[in-house]
Design goal:
The protein is of the alpha/beta class and 243 residues long. Helices cover 38% and strands 17% of the residues. It starts with 9 loop residues before the first helix and ends with a helix.
């Protein structure tokens, strides 16, 4: 494919950022597949790069600890698959994933240059389904029946967000261009204000699709913020509510 220059929408995104207001009382964080299956190189079956894993875990821990200090609900959404007799993993009902599983050459994995498996990714009860320990605290919520790319699809995430009074959904996790982006689309369609934390996302598919995911999000769906700006917006919203 021919290379394409990224359209510069800096001015638009700067103005949108100025308009963003985040009330901590109406905010929830949704972590997307921040489990060992992507981020723990010892057990990962669909690994990011080690460098991305280290970056994402450190940045996510920073953002989550700040949010907990403001009593913002944290919701961890985790992909898990059951093994079904005669089928194998539930993931194998998806035609594209089944086709990927039939390709044995290492260069044709979904993770460029890294070993991975579609058929044995995040099987129920496996270590891959465990949330990265540094990111989980008692009092966090867990939704552990995600089966596809969208965190809302087939789960009770929407009801939980409603129950905690969320109007602002903050996303972080893996992968920028698939599960995070898909969840962002649905959150947008449900009229949530949607934000992605740029330092807390990565893509196992490659840096090009990571950039695509962030560009698509920032120019079509919501706000892409670094941690410093995220904290600043929350502090501004908190002070406005106590003024």
């Amino acid at each position: 494919m021919a290379s394409v220059e990224i359209t510069d929408r800096t001015e638009m995104m700067t103005k949108l950022e100025q308009l963003l207001m985040l009330d901590p009382r109406q905010t929830a964080i949704v972590t997307v597949d921040m489990h060992r299956g992507h981020l723990d190189m010892d057990v990962a079956t669909m690994p990011t790069t080690p460098q991305d894993a280290e970056r994402v875990i450190a940045a996510a821990r920073d953002a989550l600890e700040f949010a907990r200090g403001l009593h913002i609900p944290i919701i961890h959404v985790i992909l898990t698959y059951r093994m079904v007799p005669g089928l194998g993993s539930e993931s194998m009902t998806q035609p594209f994933w089944r086709a990927v599983a039939e390709i044995h050459e290492a260069d044709n994995r979904l993770t460029p240059g890294r070993s991975s498996t579609v058929t044995h990714h995040n099987i129920q009860g496996s270590r891959g389904t465990e949330i990265i320990p540094e990111l989980f605290k008692t009092g966090d919520f867990v939704v552990d029946n995600k089966k596809r790319l969208d965190c809302f699809y087939g789960t009770d995430l929407d009801m939980l967000l409603e129950n905690v009074g969320a109007k602002n959904v903050i996303l972080m996790g893996i992968n920028t261009n698939t599960c995070v982006l898909n969840t962002g689309f649905t959150a947008f369609n449900k009229n949530y204000r949607v934000i992605v934390l740029s330092e807390c996302v990565a893509s196992m598919y490659g840096e090009d699709l990571h950039v695509l995911g962030l560009q698509n999000f920032a120019r079509c769906l919501g706000w892409v913020l670094d941690n410093a700006t995220f904290k600043k917006k929350l502090e501004e919203g908190r002070k406005l509510n106590t003024a």
